[in-house]
Amino acid sequence: MTQPADPHLISTPEQLASLFGEVGEASLKKEVSFVHPHYRALIEASPFAVLATSGPDGLDASPRGDPPGFVVVQDAHTLLLPERRGNNRVDSLRNLLADPRMALLFLIPGVGETLRVNGRASISTDPALLQRFAVGGSLPKCVLVIRVETVFFQCARAIQRSRLWQPVPPDARPGVPSPGTMLAALTEAGIDGETYDRELPARQRATLY
């Protein structure tokens, strides 16, 4: 028997437009195809971004962070993003090999507005390019050369609702499982969670770059 259609399911652009209404003029005007000087200021102030990619095995969103300015504005149409040491899954990079389209969401502590960049990325191991991003003699594995297609800032409502930049409450960690706790459960104790948690801070410090 055919199930009746869900009357509450939004399935057409017209339904979506009716639900949310017209786009405000400011929301349209703020999108440009280059890195405006004000947008450059946001990128250079940001120590953290989320990189989104798409590939044959699905979607990926992963964090990127370093001191402010770690994403370099090469020119109004080009960004440079170093790939530091990580867990070697390289999900984002594998996706980019198949589909160069990507997006970045920049966050700045204490600032409600975020910045969204859409573009296409290539992966470079040019020695001169790697050297530009050396930290303490350590080079990034590669550098993403991002061709900017659209840039716009996002209003502060999400940050305000989440209170993301409010002082961290003293009881913030209770109830949040540690990395070792999660790994022990996921591997049915194949990984010793207590040992993993105990050794993790030193391992992260030693392999930061």
Task: Explain what the structure shows.
The chain is of the alpha+beta class and 209 residues long. The protein has two domains: 140 residues, Electron Transport, Fmn-binding Protein, Chain A (Pnp Oxidase, Chain A, Roll), CATH 2.30.110; 43 residues, no CATH class. It contains eight helices and seven strands, in the order H-H-H-E-E-E-E-H-E-E-H-E-H-H-H. Strands 2-1-5-6-7-4-3 form a seven-stranded antiparallel sheet, covered by helices on one side. A hairpin with a 6-residue loop joins strand 5 and strand 6. The longest helix is centred in the last third of the chain and has 14 residues. InterPro entries: Pyridox_Oxase_FMN-dep (IPR024029), Pyridox_Oxase_N (IPR011576), Split_barrel_FMN-bd (IPR012349). It holds the Pfam family PNPOx_N. This is Pyridoxamine 5'-phosphate oxidase family protein.
Keywords:
209 residues; alpha+beta; Pnp Oxidase, Chain A; 2 domains; 7-stranded antiparallel β-sheet; 8 helices; globular
Summarize the structure.
With 209 residues, the protein is of the alpha+beta class.
Rough shape? globular
The total count of helices amounts to 8
Q: Provide the gyration radius in Å.
A: 21 Å
H/E topology pattern: HHHEEEEHEEHEHHH
* Number of E-state strands: 7
- In the sheet with the most strands, the strands line up as 2-1-5-6-7-4-3
Share of helix, binned: 25-40%
Within CATH, the superfamily of the largest domain carries the name Electron Transport, Fmn-binding Protein, Chain A
- Under CATH, the topology of the largest domain can be stated as Pnp Oxidase, Chain A
Note poorly predicted spans: none
* SS-based class: alpha+beta
